[in-house]
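User: Just a sanity check before I run the rest of the batch. Below are the structure tokens for the first item. I only need the designed sequence back.
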């Protein structure tokens, strides 16, 4: 078990992190494409090459190798999985899939469950850390995770892979894309099936899991200034579960996620004004069986979005928009039925100015009007300065966030509280990025702090059974570091370290399931004869399972190794061993995790 505190000095002595392209475009900071030198917030990108090289099955396993991320999973792959950014609640992470907000409106706190989000045909992930409600509204308190499938290729292209391994696990995926005339598009499908492991740490009965995912994109460019974007994503998951931390053959979980986007893009005034009007739709259906009978939840979020970007001169840009959101929630089971909904209207505006060479300033405000609790106004500002054309970037940001009470917290039978206020946060960070020797070495360091008030928790002192109330005040502060080294073209070494001190300001207790220290180191080498080998070591410090800090979760170190070899230009064999040292650990007390497991397969591209 890893019980020693991890230090930044140890990271810098032994670790590193992947370099980013100078011309890299960031989407997540404001919801529009921006060069990295224009962004004053902390953003990490996991690109297609990294996803392919690492061979990770779950998106969470990739996120865990980036700074400021903590996760917890209740049992085997497919179990309920939450992601915390910079020590925020897992319900305070806003999640996008291909531009669509996918937080579950039927959940207790609108948390997005990452358990069923596998890497499949995902090609890019951006993680923005820090409160950013101006661009995204409710839930962007800890930050934003933006998951994207591939951009359709020019001409025609395709990829396919299949691998097999431990616990009768089959993982297969394929996608094709192309373009002709005014149309370009792509489709993909992924299938995963495993006998699994017991969700209960001390259990012996395996809990099987099946996951089917499909995605599609179509773009119609009617003219140089007018286009239509259509996107879709679907996930079906079927999981055998346990009764808490005890073996059970009666408990199952089935879910279906539907993601849809239709957007019209129009440029006016020689491209000085761009307009995007879109309708997005997300639906989550969750059905369970248990010894007490079946029950289920369904949540839908229908959104209308308008966004304008006006750039009168090269040194100034104005981003403005309006959104209407209509979340709803249904429950049925145990002899009762519930149905609730709300309406949210939002307006926002941001200005990006470049008063002198190398300096980019951004500031803005947003107002959200909720049909239940009324209005919430948030502000934010950030700056990015480079004195040497991007070799050095100095960043700082201030952001405000809020999270609206979930429909369940507002209206849930016996426990809802229609008088709840939104959770509010203020976030500050300052950092720098330094590039050396033509990007062969890149160092990024960021210090941050976030204060949150009116955080919603369960209050046993109200009502017959208790209920939800604005009880908590929390604080998270710390430091994040990333280092990337590419001493020779064949070797890439990457690392991320973060110290996150997340505490309840009322009791000074550490917030549950959020280790103070975590570090991840990856190294990949391509040998002269084509063989590629690599390893990732992730070390996480001790944490607590509960808010009172009574149950300790020991720290751990997990080592994954991998290799791939091209048989011919478009054909490759690959394999990996996860948890090479067979480390025993838990991210949620009483739930199991995978031990040593090996997998191998083949992939082709054309």
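Assistant: Here's the designed sequence for the first item:
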């Amino acid at each position: 078990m890893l019980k020693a505190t991890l230090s930044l000095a140890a990271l810098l002595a032994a670790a590193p992190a992947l370099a980013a392209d100078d011309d890299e475009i960031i989407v997540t900071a404001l919801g529009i494409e921006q060069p990295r030198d224009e962004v004053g917030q902390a953003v990490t990108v996991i690109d297609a090459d990294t996803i392919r090289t690492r061979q990770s099955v779950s998106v969470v396993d990739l996120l865990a190798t980036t700074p400021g991320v903590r996760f917890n999973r209740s049992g085997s792959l497919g179990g309920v999985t939450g992601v915390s950014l910079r020590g925020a609640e897992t319900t305070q992470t806003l999640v996008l899939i291909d531009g669509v907000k996918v937080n579950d409106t039927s959940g207790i706190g609108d948390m997005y469950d990452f358990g069923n989000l596998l890497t499949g045909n995902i090609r890019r992930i951006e993680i923005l850390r820090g409160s950013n409600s101006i661009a995204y509204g409710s839930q962007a308190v800890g930050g934003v995770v933006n998951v994207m499938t591939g951009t359709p290729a020019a001409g025609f292209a395709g990829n396919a892979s299949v691998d097999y391994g431990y616990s009768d696990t089959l993982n297969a995926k394929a996608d094709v894309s192309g373009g002709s005339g005014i149309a370009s598009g792509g489709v993909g499908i992924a299938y995963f099936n495993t006998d699994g492991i017991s969700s209960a740490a001390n259990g012996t009965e395996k809990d099987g899991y099946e996951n089917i995912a499909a995605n599609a994109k179509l773009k119609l460019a009617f003219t140089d200034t007018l286009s239509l974007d259509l996107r879709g994503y679907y996930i079906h998951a079927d999981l055998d579960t346990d009764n808490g931390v005890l073996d059970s053959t009666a408990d199952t979980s089935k879910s279906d996620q539907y993601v849809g986007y239709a957007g019209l893009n129009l440029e006016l005034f020689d491209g000085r004004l761009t307009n995007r009007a879109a309708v997005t739709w997300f639906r989550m259906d969750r059905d369970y069986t248990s010894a007490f009978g079946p029950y289920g939840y369904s949540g839908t979020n229908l959104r209308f979005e308008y966004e304008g970007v006006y750039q009168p001169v090269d040194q100034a840009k104005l981003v403005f928009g309006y959104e209407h959101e209509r979340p709803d929630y249904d429950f049925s089971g145990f002899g009762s039925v519930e149905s609730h909904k709300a309406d949210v209207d939002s307006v926002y505006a941001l200005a990006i100015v470049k008063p002198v060479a190398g300096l980019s300033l951004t500031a803005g405000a947003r107002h959200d009007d909720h049909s239940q609790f009324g209005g919430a106004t948030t502000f934010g500002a950030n700056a990015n300065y480079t004195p040497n054309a991007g070799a050095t970037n100095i960043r700082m940001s201030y952001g405000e966030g809020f999270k609206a009470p979930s429909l369940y917290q507002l209206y849930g039978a016996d426990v809802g509280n229609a008088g709840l206020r939104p959770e509010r946060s203020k976030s500050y960070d300052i950092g720098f990025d330094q590039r050396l020797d033509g990007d062969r070495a890149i160092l990024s360091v960021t210090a941050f702090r976030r204060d949150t008030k009116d955080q919603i928790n369960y209050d046993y002192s109200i009502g017959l059974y208790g209920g939800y109330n604005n009880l908590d005040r929390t604080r998270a502060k710390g430091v994040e570091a990333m280092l990337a080294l590419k001493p020779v073209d064949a070797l890439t070494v990457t690392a991320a370290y973060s110290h996150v001190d997340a505490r309840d300001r009322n009791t000074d207790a550490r917030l549950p399931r959020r280790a103070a220290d975590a570090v991840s180191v990856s190294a990949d080498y391509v040998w002269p004869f084509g063989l590629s080998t690599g390893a990732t070591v992730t070390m996480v410090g001790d944490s607590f399972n509960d808010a009172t800090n009574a149950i300790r979760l020991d720290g751990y170190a997990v080592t994954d190794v991998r290799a791939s070899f091209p048989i011919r230009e478009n054909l490759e064999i690959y394999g990996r061993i996860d948890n090479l040292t067979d480390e025993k650990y838990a991210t949620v007390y009483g739930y199991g995790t995978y031990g040593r497991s090996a997998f191998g397969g083949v992939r082709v591209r054309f």
